[in-house]
Design brief:
Radius of gyration: 20 Å
Distance between the termini: 37 Å
CATH topology: Sufe protein. Chain: A
Number of domains: 1
CATH class: Alpha Beta
Number of strands: 2
Helix content: 40-55%
């Protein structure tokens, strides 16, 4: 419900095209422009990381990856006890646990990766930093060549690169699951 100064409150569902030219239309237009700009900035966050890593030489790329690894936020306490096979990325040799939540088509990513696996932890931190707050559509739109684009294929072995690809793939699956909650009693994910 929205209250704009004097007058009765209204729900945004009550806004129709015939309301264009009203003070409410100006408010919604302003909010829409703000949110559109915010979305562009969020998508730009990942692209800025991609640009920085792809322009770095091999040694700088390794150092940046380690910096990202150090910056991965700790897993919230409420999720710590949920680290189980369902949240583990099996495609990766290192124990990676992904948790995805969505609210109003915005994605929030939480992850746990041991500090002893700095390259994987760094890649996961890049995903968290670059995609938290992005739309479901934007996360699903991340190209599968991300690992190549940021130059990790040049500094990591093939097995490690495959594991990172598994992390990205699993992240997208988790985003789909989180954005399409299962009805009670239905354990099937849409599309399976």
């Amino acid at each position: 419900m929205v209250i704009l100064g004097p007058g009765p409150p209204f729900d945004d569902q009550d806004f129709e095209e015939s309301d264009l030219g009203t003070p409410q239309a100006g408010f919604f237009s302003l909010i829409q422009r703000f949110l559109t700009q915010r979305i562009k900035l969020l998508v730009a966050a990942l692209e800025a990381i991609v640009s920085e890593l792809s322009e770095a030489d091999r040694q700088e790329r390794i150092e940046l990856l380690i910096e990202f690894a150090r910056s991965l936020p700790p897993l919230p306490e409420r999720l710590e006890r949920l680290k189980d096979a369902e949240h583990r990325v099996e495609e990766c040799q290192s124990p990676v646990f992904l948790f995805v939540e969505t609210e109003a088509d915005r994605v929030e990513i939480h992850a746990d990766v041991p500090i002893e696996a700095p390259t994987v932890r760094g890649f996961v931190a890049i995903l968290v930093e670059g995609l938290n707050g992005a739309t479901v559509e934007d996360v699903l739109g991340v190209k599968n060549d991300l690992i190549d684009r940021i130059g990790l294929a040049e500094i990591l072995g093939m097995q490690r690169v495959r594991g990172l690809g598994g992390v990205l793939s699993r992240l997208k699956k988790e985003v789909v699951k989180a954005s399409n909650p299962r009805p009670p009693g239905n354990s099937q994910v849409p599309g399976e």
